[in-house]
Structures are given as structure tokens and as C-alpha cells.
Amino acid sequence: MAVAEPYTMLLASLPHLPAPGSVKQLPISRLQLKNRLKWLTPEDQRRLHAMDIALHWAHLSVDLSDAQMLQRAQGALEQIGSAFLYPIVLERLEMRTFAAALRRRRRNQPPRPDEPWGVGRFVRQIETHFHEPAFGLGHLYPWIAQAHQHLQDNEPMALENLLIMESWKQLNRVDDRHGFGFDAVALYTLRWEILHRFIHRDTEKALTHFDTLVSHALEASPVSLEALT
Amino acid sequence: MNDLALSLGWLGLYAPMALGAIGSMIGCSLAGQAAIGAMLETESGHGKYLGVSVMPSSQLIYGIVVMFTLNREITEATAPGVFGIGLLAGLALMASAIFQGKACASAINASKAKPDIFGLSLAPSAIVEGFAVFAFIFALVISAGIPGS
């Protein structure tokens, strides 16, 4: 008789996360969420961190090669240690692989046979059906053809929205919200990250762009940042 | 053999109370943790969360009543009946308390996000309670057949 529900209080203390587009503000801030996640055991915190490494790349240096990024993600994926979460995280990485392939096709830059460029079960399938709109997987992933169309029409925001909504739908399909174990906590954080990305997508993009411009400007300037402070 | 039968008789006599208590402890603890978590997140309705979290305590009361109903002189003639009814009633009460606790925790968590479903969300817990009542009533009915009552 399984009675292990270690995170009942933690999960009950987290607010409901509505679907992207239905709210303009996050129901719980990153700081509040971080404070609540301190209730996780050290082992589960490590697993959550592994999931974070596998999925969140925005803060990584642009100097990292595709091979290094993939190695980093694959290594983290192996450390998640949950048969329930592994396919969810893998599917998210596969979604990025599809997005990367669509962008490569737009640039007419098919992956070389020896080049590590994607993660998951469909890398070879994409390579062999590179010029088909949905890589021959339209029956499994109807959104790929839609994403292809957004790229063709030069609609980056529509593409971003599509990817966010597909990620959200994927989590809805496997939702385990009535459980009170680590998997439910991990699912909550994944949903929170998606909602956060949706709500802050413009701001973050602008900030990233601003940071890049500042870095370039400082690199080009003869005056160092240290000299100014 | 005689000593073993008598020991099992005593075990069966105390089992509904002890197993019911174990189930109620676990069930109330699960539902109580959900209630405390919900209190951190919400500004009102704390009383109803606490009220729901004590629902799995009824199994202990049923267990005490079954124990007193089974209470008679433990002999070679009465021990098998007391053991069988007491142990199985205790296991049923324990399982129902634990699973009712889980159902209550889910009800608290769901009604926190959507307060208008509070009543409906309690239906699964009430059904689990119904099964505990069945186990309790029929333990009382069957125990009348054990000699020495």
C-alpha cells in the first residue's frame, strides 16, 4: 500500500497555474517558488537542477558549440532519475530539435552526416526527410507543418507562441496534478517555466538584445567597465 | 497449538482498533499537510480545509466499536472467529483511512484553485467512507455468530 506522498504540503501551498494567455501576471514569483522548493530533499533538488540544466539554455554562453550543448543536455537527462519525467523532458528536447531543423532548412543548411546537431528519437528521420514540410512526421506532430509555415511567413512571435502552447499541451497530456510526489513538483516547475516564458517573452527578448548590445559596445570601447566604476 | 490460537484471538481482538488508528494517523497526516499547504496559499476558508483533513479519523472510532463488540472471553472456540473478523475489519479500516486521506488531500488542493467545486471534490472521500462503514457494520453483524457474546 503506497503511502509515500512526501510533498503534499509543498504542492498544496503552490497556486494553480492557468493556461498561457489567460493571465498577465504569474500567480507565484520566481523568488517565492524558489523558497517553496527549499522543502525538497537535497536529492530531489539535485534532480530538479538536472532537469533545469537539460532544458534551460538561455543563460548559456553563445560560444558553446552544438556538440557541447547536446552533451550537456544528454548528461543532465540521464541524471533526472525518473521514468515518468525522462520521456517528458526528452520530448521537450525533441521539440527543440524540430525547431532547429526548421531553421536549418530555412537557411538551406542540412546537417552533415557526422555532425551532432539534435537530440532524441527522430534525428535520423529528420535527416532523411529533411526537405519534407513536417519531416514525414505530420501524423504524429501536426504542429511542425504549422511551425514551418510561420517560419516561411517570417512570423517569429507566432512561432514562439506555437512552441509554448505545444509544450503546455504536452504537459497537460501527462498531468499528474493529483499526486503529491516529486514528479508532481517537477511538472509544476515545468508548467511555471512555460507560463513565465509566455508572460515575459517580449521583455526577455528585449533585455537579451539590450545586454548583447551593451557587451558589444563595451568590447568595442577603449574604456573598460572597471575604469568607469 | 492452544497457545497460538489464543494469541491469534487476542491479536484479532485488538487489530481493528490498532489498524484503524494507524490508518487514521496516516490519512489525517496526508490531508492535514494539504490543509496546511493550502492555508499558506489562501487567505480564507481555512476552517473548511481543517474540517476535511480530520475526515479519516472516523475509522479509528469504528475500530474501537468493533473491538468492544468482539470483546469476550478468548477461548479455543472463540479465538478463530475473533481473529478472522478483527484482522480483516482492521485491514479494511486502515486501507480506507489512508486512501480517504489521499482523496481529502486532493480535494483540498483542487478546491483551493477552484473553490466552487469544494462540495463535489469531497464525493470520492465520502464514497471511501461508505466502504469503511460497510466493513464496520458487517463486522458487527458477523461477530454475533461467535459464541460467548
UniProtKB/TrEMBL annotation, chain A:
Q: What is this protein called?
A: DUF2764 family protein
UniProtKB/TrEMBL annotation, chain B:
| Superkingdom | Bacteria
Task: Give the record's membrane topology.
Answer: Multi-pass membrane protein
Keyword Transmembrane helix part of the UniProt annotation: yes
Chief location of this protein within or outside the cell: membrane
Q: Where in the cell is it found?
A: Membrane
Q: Which part of the chain is the V-ATPase proteolipid subunit C-like domain?
A: 11-69, 83-142
Which keywords accompany this UniProt record? Membrane, Transmembrane, Transmembrane helix
Protein name, entry field: ATP synthase subunit C
What phylogenetic lineage does the species belong to? Bacteria, Pseudomonadati, Thermodesulfobacteriota, Desulfuromonadia, Desulfuromonadales
